[in-house]
Structure formats: C-alpha cells, structure tokens
Amino acid sequence: MTDTKKKLNAWEQAAYLAEKTPASRNRYVDFLRAVSIIIVIFGHWLVVAPYIKEGEIFLSDILSISPWTQWLSWILQVMPIFFIVGGFSNSISWQSAQKRGEGYSPWLAARLRRLITPVLPILAVWAVIGIIANLFNADQSILQPASAFALLPAWFLVVYIVVVSLVPLVFKAWQRFKMASFWMLVAAAILIDIAVFVFGWKALGWVNYVFVWVAVHQFGIAWQAQIKSDSRKMLFWAIGGLAALIALVTFGPYPISMVSVQGEEISNTLPPNLTMLALGIFQGGLLLSLEAPIRKWLDKKKVWTATVLINGMIMTLFLWHVTVLILVAGLALALGGFGLGIAPGSSAWWLTRPIWILILSTVLLTLVPIFLRYERLRKIEKPAFIPAWRLLIGALFFCVGLAILTLNGIPADNFLGIRFIELALPFAGAMIAGIIFSTKN
Predict the structure, then answer these.
(1) Which pTM was predicted?
(2) Domain boundaries, the chain
(3) Dihedral angle at the C-alpha atoms of 156, 115, 319, 147, nearest 10 degrees?
C-alpha cells in the first residue's frame, strides 16, 4: 500500500484518508479548522496592502485606510475558533493518553513536536533573507516590519503552546468545576481589564493571554464533553456574546476592530481583552448551533475529502502565507512596482483583489510541497522519554525567541544584520525538548 500511496496525487491521498475516517470522529472540528485557516489567509492577504507612492513603498493597512472594514474583523478574526477547536482536540487527546497509561511528558512531547517542527524552516529562511539583505545593505526600515509580519502567524503558536502545556491542569479543573472553571477565568479576565483600563496598570494586561484564551479553550472542552450540544442554547450563548461585544465597543474603551490597526492606541488582541472573550462566546455559540446540519453535509465524499486535504497541510499554509505575500510584493517592486500603484481602498483596488489572491494562492500552493514534510512527521515507534522539566524549558526557549521575533522582526545592528540570538532560541528550545526531525518522504 505504501508504494501505491506514493503514486497518488494530493486529492487522491486525501480521498484515501477520508475513506478510512472512523465513524466516531467529529468531522465538524476538522471543518472548522480548515475554514478558519482559509479565512486567516485571505484576511491577511486583504488587510495588508503594499502600495507604491512617488517611488516609495508602503505596507498599508486597509483597516486604517477604510475604517468600515474594521467591522469585518468580527468575522475574519477567527483566533477564538482555533482555541475552541484546540480545547475539543486536546481534551480528546489527553483523555486518550490517560487511558493508554501515558503520562504528561510523552503526551506533551508529541504535541510540541507537531507544533514546533514546522516553524523552524521558516525561521531558517528568514535568517538567510536577513543575512543576504545585510550584505546588500537593504533598507532595514522595510525588512523589520516585513519580517515581523511574516512571522506573525507564529505568534498564535506561542500562545497556543502555553495553553497546551496547561491542558492537564485545566482539564482537571473542568472535571471538578465544569462550567464554573470557565466562569472563573472570565471573572479573572474582567478583573485584569479593570486593572488595565481603570487603574492604568497596562503591563498587567499581558496576563490575559492566559485567562482569555484558556477560557475560550475551556469552551472547547465543554463542547467535547457534550455540555455545549443543544442548538437552541448555543444560539442564546451567541446572542449573549454578541450583545456583550457590542456593549464593550460602544460603552467601553475598546476599539471596533478585532485585530490591531495601525495608529490605534488600544489593541483588542495585543494583549487580548474582554472583547476577544465576547467574540469567542459569540462565534462559538453560533458555530455550535450549526453543528448538526453541517455534520450531515460533511458526510458527502467530496466535501469531507476537501476538508481532509486542507487539514493535511494546515500548518504549512498557515506559516507560509504571509511570507508569500511579502515575496510577491518584493518581486512586483523589483519589476518596477507592477500592480502596486493602485491606491488601497479604491474601487480599482477592490476589483483587482481576486487577481491578487489568485496569484498569492498559486505561489503558496507551489511552496507547500517543499515544506509539507516538516508537518507530516514520521511516527516514532519508541520515542525516548523526555522529562517534563526539559520539555517545558525547551518550550520556554522556543516561545521567548519566537515572541521577540514576531514583535520586533529579524534585523539587528550587528555584523550579520539579524537577531541571531533570538533566532537561535527556538532551535535551542527544540533541541532541549528532544525534537527529532524525522519527516515523511
């Protein structure tokens, strides 16, 4: 069968895997993950609008140029959905590990391997880009925001790895307190926002990376436990979340946009605040109210095969789609600014977006086969035992380095022209955590 599978194209491989899907699998989880990643990709490709004016290139932001588009972020900001889906998946995975008699270390090691390995190639590529740019004395004022934006998708992984490392703890809290474990986190997030916006303790706002996203993650655990399965109740949750979101942006200090906007003092995502929690409740309630009919629709062979296909390359698509945007924009600039002279937000700009997205999609799908091997890892039959303290330290190194790079980009004032220490930290973290680079052929 191995020889046969090698001869199959991507769709045929996905169809092969789709046919072997067990009846017990909740296909809606995979569907939400696939749709969310498509929304993320297209959203980033629309939000960032490279533009040349008087011979100078600008990385424009359509959200600030056309403020009406900020309302679209209530749909295009799907980070809450990823954490809800993560809560569902991590709950199943952790329970399965417990049934097999696996402890925390083997379980976490497997999760980290899948989350960390696909990130390392893109860091290596950007390190090379930075060194080459330094050799040719490229303008760092362009390279800095470009590289920071290119690595922006990895910011999600920093937060997600923190949440994953807490799964045994938060699952135990769920077993003991049920939905109260969710509301306790909501109460903690409210207190943090009061401290930030009433008392001015802005630094404390970063704590909400834990309270907000773990709360949304608990929502996913509740879904897996079938606490969140009644369609009517889920609609009430959606209405409540939407009402809270409207109230927060109307009467509170929170901006309308659910993603950061250039020039705005307050960001709803950096760090997250109560708007992200309300958005998660709104989106989660709405999507779970639609679970039954969509699960029936997913029984169709072609629909489910497409879902399997996207899920099979989801990390590669996620990590590389912004880099593709920057490379295409750079190529257009080298060709004299071809296609970059249209003013963002104009009628002509919107009319040409389908062409822009088609070009980016073609380039991204060309890159996918090159880097897909770092996502489709070979199963290690007898993995070496890595103690939990090593895994956590490795994850810490990885997350710290990645967080700095996503905030500041890769350029630095040294002989290499890159932040080589920060770039080295994720690789050091992978080594400490015993990440084995065993990819499929």
Answers:
(1) 0.93
(2) 13-432
(3) 70
